[in-house]
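Re: duplicated header lines in exported structure tokens

Our pipeline writes sequence and tokens for each protein into one text file. With two proteins the header for the second block appears twice in some exports. Here is an export where it did not happen, for reference. First protein block:
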Amino acid sequence: MSKYIIGIDQSTQGTKAILFDEKGALLSRRDLPHKQIINEKGWVEHDPEEIYKNTVQVVRQLVDDSKIDKSEIAGVGISNQRETSIAWTKDGKPVYNAIVWQCSRAEQICEEIMNQGHGQLIRENTGINLSPYFPAGKLAWILRNVEDAKKAADAGKLCCGTVDAFLVYRLTGGKEFRTDFSNASRTQLFNINTLKWDEEICRIFGIPVECLPEVTDSDGDFGTTDFEGYLDQPVPIRGVLGDSHGALFGQGCLSKGMVKATYGTGSSVMMNIGEKPVKSTHGLVTSLAWSMGGKANYVLEGNINYTGAVITWLKDDLELISSAGETEELARKASPDDHSYIVPAFSGLGAPYWDGKAEAIICNMTRTTRKAEIVRDALDCIAYQITDIVMAMNEDAQMPVSELRVDGGPTKNKYLMQFQSDIVRVPVMVPPAEELSAMGAAYAAGIALGIYDRNKLFEGVSRTAYNPMMAETERASRYKGWKAAVRKVLQP
């Protein structure tokens, strides 16, 4: 009898369901997009009900199309877009749309808290600089501005959390209100030293601790689900990880000093720093990689708001391309004598700069800056931003990065991968599969259920290597130009 694990990746643009066999091999995948709700203020939201319905539907499509025996599904792992925040009542109904990680509407709340002198406490206890990027500010905004949320909180009937907690709650019929350590550590409400919700910080943001989920090991017991009656018998949810953490695990970055970069709508660059936290002095954050088997592992991380989303901007807003696949050929046609840059600060700049008021620019243009050059600049700015973070990691961890393991759709772009290797000056390693977030959560579930052997699971993965080829003088000149372009957008 075969045994299958389903990996669900609920990401910014859509929801994926992926089927893995008892050896961890990827068998099939199905996707469903969801609507991006953006208003005139630039606020970004998702409909939680649409996300939940898509999650159930995409699993049904996966299993139906795969024609496997439902009784052979052994368990489920879930990875999720992390800082996106949802508040719902105990009957499972959202009181407001999900506020997406890209949305900076809580900036005024964070400024107010900073002016009250709480910035250092929050940084020390959570490992994170005070920022509207994280759920604390987003959930505070909901409690301040949504009347139904305030009423439910006063009545002790409000649940607040990230997308994983909402999905677990709904998939288990409200029986389990849980999040994992990786997602909790990204909320700016979790104390990474005591490994508990920080009651003082919750009070500062005005978020009742009772509204927050129970924090569970990433390979812990998150209850069971039958996907709204689709399965004949409920199956256990035994792996939950934030998408970037899932990718770190799926990449096999299990040892101290290993680094991965996920190229998605935005990007996360993570370094496994082992069982003790390292405090950054170079604009990074310290979070939990995961806790498995009762043992916590930490990471240094830098987050970038706009990487793959820059390509979407080229396609949907500027209408310079009709598909992302066109960018590689256009970039190769760009003039090497053109020295223009794009700094994609459409919603400020994240790590390592953390300037929420920075605005995007295209600079150093000449009369010969045309479509090909702008498309190339859009790809280049992805590599430059990731390099900024890797350089900061080198300084903070005092562990030189020996290779960069990468994942996500843009890793198919050979121009981008070679340029990334040239600028960061280390080999860039691309795995055969791009679904690393779902893979990591599925692998965590499979290991917890005794289906996979952790020691053997990552053996024999064949990666495509891109090695540095650019002359150091040219690399240094280009990177210096990038840093000068960034300085133009930073607020004094």
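Second protein block, exported in the same file:
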Amino acid sequence: MKKFEFSLKKLMEYKQQILKKEKSHLGELRKQKQLLDDEISFITNKKRDNCESFNRRMCGGLSPQHICLHKNYIESLNQQINNLHSKKNALEASIQNQLEIVIQITKDVDSLEKLEEKQLEEYNNQLTKQQELFIEEFVSHKSFVTVN
């Protein structure tokens, strides 16, 4: 009997290759999200530190120009934070979509692997049956030869 070969081997290899690519893409999206989180945290800390510094300087007295300048700076930081949160929300939606793609392809690959296991089991059963038939024929031929 010829060696076992999965009939959908090429398809399974192709799906595994796609799965690897999609997982890589998901990893990149998660990395981008982490960078956005870091940037949001950095700007938030910068804003907090600036507000604390401003409050300390207010005790000593500041000119209206400095107060206005500080207010504009804080507004610009708030705008940056809002923009980054918008980007983060869009990126989270992309991550969720990509995760669904990865899950679907993983299911496809798993089903192909189960099918391969089933085909291998059938192959092994057929091989066992062939070996049993061969042994029976051998034994019956041997007993036939010794009887004559």
